[in-house]
Predict the 3D structure of the following.
Amino acid sequence: MRYTMSTIGAGNGARVIAIEYGDFPDGAATPEQAVAGVTSVMRKYGADGGAYWTWVETDNTYEAGLPFAEAVLKRGATLQFNSVKDAIVKAYAP
C-alpha cells in the first residue's frame, strides 16, 4: 500500500481498491486474522475496499482446505458460512 500510494499520490481523488485479498493456509494467521490485518492496512492508507478470495468453496478439493484459504460460504443446499464471514462483516461495519 505504501508503494501504491506513493505512486498515485494522496488527496487527488484517485481511488484504490484491493481486487482480491485473503490468506495463505500456512498457519501464519487464521483467516479472521488475515482479514483484520489486510482491512486495517486498507483503512490506514484510505483504500476503498476489496473482494475477499473466495466467496464459495467450488469443489471437494477446495472444501478440504489445502492448499486454499478458507472461503466465505460452504458448498451445499443451504447457506452455511465459514467463520471468516464474521471477520469480513466486522471489518466493514461502521
The first helix runs from residue 2 to 8. Helices lie at 2-8, 31-45, 60-64, 84-92. The chain is about 40% helix and 5% strand. The chain has one domain: 2-92.
